[in-house]
Amino acid sequence: MGEYEITTAGSREMTTFLEWAEDEQWNPGKLDRLPFHAADPHGFFLGRLDNEPVTSVSAVRYGREFGFIGFYIARPPVRGRGYAIQAWRAAMRHLDGRNVGLDGVVDQQDNYRRSGFRTAWNHLRYAGVPGVERPSGDISVVDAGTVPFGVLASYDRRFFPAPRDAFLSLWVALPGHTALVAVQDGELRGFGVARPAGTGARVGPLHAASDDVALALLHGLSAARPGEPLALDVPDVNAAAIVLMERLGLEPTFECARMYTRDVPEVDLPGIYAATTIELG
């Protein structure tokens, strides 16, 4: 057995995380490296065997009480040899004392349960080119950059267990990212972001006060990428969101379970039409 070392990954090394996630067919965003790393620069762990990267895991801290596990990957040649679990333990130490969430792929969910995680709901990835259906009502969809950042961050906080301002400030501003808000009767009623991925574009978050608001945002995001397939990770406990995806002709392609070590955080779950990411929550 060679020498195995776990170190904190820098922003440049984040390309390895994304390449491995692409190999696992998770279809990460092409520019995820910078906003992901900004969320918690100390929360990404790379395991090296004889100086060769072989394992990855992220453990991102949000605020003082919440954390999220992602990118838990062992390269095929070292699977089953105990290296990944060492990286896992390092990640969980980084999040010690917090409620920890993750999105677990189907074949790992039993392992996560043995580590104390409990399923809250499933995320179903719906993908395809949305059908042409124009929103009704007096909903204005505009660039999220036209809204004061404090207002946007406060709105986002309704749907996420902790502040994530550093992440969010980059998420809405990176080249190629389309960030839109929906305004109705003078109030912010929805927020959506689409970003380029290996295949098509990933949409997340998609937060909306109603089906009509979600549809208006999806219409705007799709119009910015005409003919391009979109992928959204939809919580199956939001029945309205599932109906909307199917109404638009999108098809389920992937499934994972949102799991937590403690109580399910209190968020506006009916307003979540798509999670931000399965990697960072």
SSE layout:
Layout: E1 4-8, H1 14-23, H2 33-39, E2 44-49, E3 52-62, E4 66-74, H3 83-94, E5 99-105, H4 109-114, E6 118-128, E7 140-143, H5 149-157, H6 165-171, E8 178-184, E9 187-196, E10 201-208, H7 211-223, E11 230-235, H8 239-247, E12 251-260, E13 272-274
Parallel strand pairs: 4-5, 10-11
Antiparallel strand pairs: 1-2, 2-3, 3-4, 5-12, 6-11, 6-12, 7-8, 8-9, 9-10, 10-13
Helix pairs in contact: 2-6
Task: Note the main attributes of this structure.
single chain; 281 residues; alpha+beta; 13-stranded mixed sheet; 8 helices; 26% helix
Please provide a written account of the structure.
By secondary structure, this protein is an alpha+beta fold. Strands 1, 2, 3, 4, 5, 6, 7, 8, 9, 10, 11, 12 and 13 form a 13-stranded mixed sheet that branches. Helix 2 runs antiparallel to helix 6 (165-171). The protein has helices at 14-23, 33-39, 83-94, 109-114, 149-157, 165-171, 211-223, 239-247; strands at residues 4-8, 44-49, 52-62, 66-74, 99-105, 118-128, 140-143, 178-184, 187-196, 201-208, 230-235, 251-260, 272-274. The two termini are 35 Å apart. The relative contact order is 0.18. The mean pLDDT is 96. The chain is globular and about 65 Å long.
